[in-house]
Amino acid sequence: MALLTNLRRILDGLYKAGGVVAALFLIAILVLIVVQMVARWTGEVFSGAPDYAGYCMAGASFFAFAYTLNHGAHIRVSIVLNSLGSKRWWGEVWCFGIGTALSTYFAYYAIKATYWSRLLNDISQGQDATPIWIPQLAMAIGSVLLAICFWDNLARLIFTGQHAIQSSAIEQEGAE
User: Fold this and answer.
1) What average pLDDT values come out for the chain (176 residues) when binned by 10 residues?
2) pLDDT of residue 167
3) Based on the structure, what is the number of domains in the chain?
4) What phi and psi values does residue 152 have, to the nearest 5 degrees?
5) Which residue from 148, 144, 142 is spatially nearest to 164, judged by alpha carbons?
6) Could you give the residue ranges of the DSSP H alpha helices within 71-119?
7) Domain that holds residue 27
8) From CA 175, how far away is CA 70, in angstroms rounded?
9) Which of 5, 41, 150, 151 counts the most CB atoms within 10 A of its CB?
10) Residue 164 · residue 14 · CB < 8 Å
């Protein structure tokens, strides 16, 4: 039982760390925008800033996926699940099964794309000429985190009958 408690703490910490990294990427976008504004005011050129901001946006999105899933902020099919009544558990298993399969599939190909970009020394087409595997690394790590989160929630649902997703506003309103 202590092993499961430690594993739970590690996984929840991992999802929270993904949320923190996503927030740091958002701060990086803010800094890039401010630096680009200052550069324009002073007559300097900060080439590649829009590309770097795009990379940070992708990093923020992918790192936030697992954290967002566990906090019920993803678009879910709560209305349909609530209407299932006593068969809701089967509906949730179906939804988590599909989500788990798709996120695992996506994580596999995100890792594969990053690997091949690194192997082929693929460079971005923007002014920054960044090796494209560097921003793809955020996508790969974030998609692996999401797949782990889906596997975690599916296993919890099957073995304990409960998932880790916090209730959304729709579910709370329906429960009153």
Assistant:
1) 84 94 97 92 86 94 92 73 84 92 97 96 86 95 96 93 70 46
2) 65
3) 1
4) -60, -50
5) 148
6) 78-83, 88-119
7) 2-175
8) 20
9) 150
10) no
